[in-house]
Amino acid sequence: MADSKGPVIGPVLGIESSCDETGVAVYQPGRGLLAHALYSQIALHAEYGGVVPELASRDHVRKLLPLLRQTLADAGLAVPDLSAVAYTAGPGLIGALLVGASVARSLAWALEVPAIGVHHMEGHLLAPLLEEPAPGIEPLAPPFVALLVSGGHSLLVGVDRIGSYTILGDTLDDAAGEAFDKTAKLMGLPYPGGPALAKLAETGDPKAYRFSRPMTDRPGLDFSFSGLKTQVLMAWRDSNRNDFTRANIARGFEEAIVETLAIKCRRALAQTGYKRLVVSGGVGANKRLRAQLVEAGQREGFRTYFPRLAFCTDNGAMIALAGSIRLAAGQTTGPEIRVQPRWDLQTLPEVA
Ligand code: KG4
Ligand code: ZN
Predict the structure, then answer these.
(1) Is residue 128 lining ligand 1, measured as CB closer than 6 Å?
(2) Dist. CA 252–CA 257, nearest whole Å
(3) Which single residue of 67, 94, 134, 167 has CA 20 to 30 Å from 224?
(4) Which of 40, 183, 254, 283 to mutate to test the pocket of ligand 1 (most atoms within 8 A of CB)?
């Protein structure tokens, strides 16, 4: 990995604050993840049914420094032991990003160590590298296809080398996680809807409802999930709306979205000729999606790599890892506190 050639790198702090999770971690190339801690704001936003940006920023302010102290203590380190500070510089909520960037940049300045502004989606994309490869399994390395499915993104990315990314497919409307969340909400499930809907779907009958697999009947790798949400709305409205029906509809919806994602992944692998697939982002925690892709890989000769469940959703570990890879390549960020709420993954520099 990143430590195999370059200079020895000390512990790198990673700070994630792009949305509603405050994540802090310490990663050291060659030693791996030394500690990580996460504070989720889910309870704070639940009564509003979605993330309230101003509340998110204020809560990051409250939680970041205590979390940082806890993480360093867990790693058995003191602040001066850090050799660099990585932080999510975008994309995300501007106020939330600025909290992480300000703390990270100030700390790096005080310690006179480099700071590295990390692209949040590159963090998700590299997160499987936090896992030890199982015995006999070849470690993940480019080239590969990455399916990045979260509350804000549904991307299929071609990865030639680390840092060299081509967007092969994107969503035309809702992101996959957003579709889960909105569909759950319209059937009265609690926020955040994705995990709640997936849990309910386990008890549903897969044959009771069949929804369409959007945009799979024509070539291309883009997604569209908003029509699926409307189909569910109509099915729910026209039903007896009892608990069995809710579970059956949840199952039908999950089957549709999972199969659609799996079809597009297989298509992207066929198009690129790559034999490795990364699945990451919050929806990557979906058990049915994971099982279906592993099975398809066994049948069709590709291998799927996931982060552990806790690192599918937002976390500091993936930012510390991505930051240390950039640091090893000599790619650090200037002294200004700058964030990018919108940021095209394809504009990142290649890691040599
Ligand atoms: O990556 P993430 O933590 O935050 C963003 O960057 O958006 O992803 C959160 C999204 C939410 O939409 C949530 O409902 C969804 O991931 N999610 C799931 C599951 N766990 C989280 N969706 C389907 N099945 C799950 N098990
Ligand atoms: Zn994310």
Answers:
(1) no
(2) 9
(3) 94
(4) 283
CATH code at position 212: 3.30.420.40
pLDDT digit string, tens, across residues 41-68: 999 999 898 899 999 999 999 999 999 9
CA of 1 to the centre of ligand 2 (A): 23
Residue 194 Cβ < 6 Å to ligand 1: yes
Has residue 352 been placed in a domain?
no
Each residue's pLDDT tens digit, 228-238: 999 999 999 99
User: What tokens were used for 139?
Assistant: 């470690």
Atom of ligand 1 nearest to the CA of 287: 26
**Domain that residue 340 falls in:** 12-127+311-347
Distance from the CA of 282 to the center of ligand 2, in angstroms?
Answer: 7
Q: Is the pTM of this model over 0.90?
A: yes
